[in-house]
Design goal:
25% strand, Rossmann fold, globular, 8 strands, 8-stranded mixed β-sheet, alpha/beta, 5 helices
């Protein structure tokens, strides 16, 4: 893997061993950031199921203001830490080493450690890429983002889910409404926005 464009262009990245973590391909990342180009500079970016951190690192390379990573797998976290160190990135990054569901439920007030709660109303771009086989994770994360945890989304925020092309996500998850789907090979990207913002997505 490599960084496609920006400050860290062409720098290589490590990926976790095995198949349990499936990094977003360079080609799909390029497609994603071509779409996000008008939004990414200065954006607050949330990378759920972060894996190696490649998507968030691409955002930082393209001058996102900050990236928050959420990942719980030890092997993936080790690679994520290594990729940040390799690029010399120590600022503008926050890592939550926990389940995505626990992180998102923090905004509902049920998290026992409120100091770790996500900041409300700040995240302008949210990317989520659960393991393809973990279908329930899509429903949980998108359901929370469109429901109890929607307060972490900035006005006009976009939520993007990477998934298997043959696995169709729902058109709606609470207040989230799908605005477009991009397909590439076996993968797809579904874009969502809070319904009142959907025409802007």
């Amino acid at each position: 893997m490599r960084i496609i464009a920006g400050t860290y262009r062409s720098r290589t990245l490590a990926a976790p061993p095995g198949m349990s973590t499936r990094p977003t391909s360079d080609r799909l990342r390029e497609t994603l950031f071509n779409v996000l180009a008008p939004r990414i500079k200065g954006a607050v970016f949330l990378d759920l199921y972060a894996g190696s951190g490649a998507v968030g690192l691409e955002a930082l390379s393209r001058r996102a203001a900050s990236v928050t990573y959420v990942e719980r797998a030890p092997a993936a976290l080790k690679v994520l830490d290594g990729n940040l160190a390799r690029l010399g990135i120590s600022e503008g990054v926050n890592i939550h080493r926990k389940r995505v569901s626990a992180f998102l439920r923090g905004i509902t007030g049920t998290n026992p450690k409120p100091e770790e709660d996500p900041k409300p109303g700040k995240n302008e771009v949210v990317f989520l890429d659960p393991p393809y086989e973990a279908a329930e994770e899509y429903a949980i994360a998108l359901g929370l983002l469109g429901g109890a945890a929607k307060g972490i989304l900035a006005e006009g925020a976009v939520v993007i889910a990477e998934h298997r092309r043959k696995f169709a996500l729902d058109e709606r998850y609470g207040s989230l409404k799908r605005t477009r789907v991009l397909e590439q090979g076996d993968a797809a990207l579904s874009f969502y926005a809070i319904e009142s913002d959907a025409t802007q997505a």
